[in-house]
Every structure is written in C-alpha cells, then in structure tokens.
Amino acid sequence: SLYVFDRLVLSELPTLHEHLGRMGVSPDLYAAKWFHALAMAPQVDAAVMDYFLLDGPAAVYSLGLALLSANEGSLLEISDRDQLVHILNNELPDAFAAPQELIDYASSVW
C-alpha cells in the first residue's frame, strides 16, 4: 500500500520524506504509477520479475526506495512542486540504465 511505502520513506529517508511533505508531494502522486508499471506493464524485465518472485511484495517497496535513495540529493534541491512531481513521475523511473542495475542497487541498500 502507499501508506506502507510512505512509512518506509519516513524510516529510511527521513530528510527526503520531510522535503516531500513540505512540498505537498505524497506517494500517491508518484509511487502508484511506479508500482502499477512494475506489476502490470508487459515490458517488465525478467530480472525485475525474478526479483519480485524471490522477495515478494517487499521487492516493490525496495525498488521504490532505491529510486528515491539514488536520487535523494537532486530531489532535495528542487523547490518547485510541479517540477518535483514531474521528475518523480517521468524522469526518476528512467534513472537507471537497466532494470538489473536498479535491482543491484536496491539489494545493496535494503
């Protein structure tokens, strides 16, 4: 659920969580799109599917946290809400060159 993801962001990335909150950006503005893409998109990479099958639903949260963590510094510098939402929805999911790179990062952090 998005509530669980929000609590994980608070726990693991408190500075970013505070910044997103100040900007009025909650996970329902960005994470729902990520999770839906991971679960439903036909182009989901086999590596992502394997990661999900091995780790279960926690894998989705881990990948979401990895996206935020890897880009935390640049996200903290954004002071325009619309720009922040745009980056979270359109640029952040492409931040890693390949799904395996994202999985490796997520596995090393969480």
Question: Outline of this structure?
Answer:
With 110 residues, this protein is mainly alpha-helical. The protein contains eight helices and no strands.
Descriptive report:
By secondary structure, the protein is an all-alpha fold. The protein has eight helices and no strands. Helix 1 packs across helix 2, helix 1 (2-12) packs across helix 5 and helix 5 packs across helix 8 (99-109). It is globular, with a radius of gyration of 13 Å.
Chain-wise SSE layout:
Blueprint: H1 2-12, H2 14-22, H3 31-40, H4 46-55, H5 58-70, H6 72-76, H7 81-91, H8 99-109
Helix pairs in contact: 1-2, 1-5, 5-8
Q: For the report, how would you describe the main beta sheet? A: none
Gyration radius, in Å: 13 Å
Q: What percent of residues are in strands? A: under 5%
What's the number of helices?
8
Q: From N to C, what is the helix and strand string?
A: HHHHHHHH
What number is the mean pLDDT?
86
Q: Which ranges are low-confidence, i.e. pLDDT below 50, for 5 or more consecutive residues?
A: none
Helix/strand structural class: mainly alpha
Helicity level:
over 70%
Span between N and C termini?
A: 18 Å
**Shape field:** globular
Total number of strands: 0
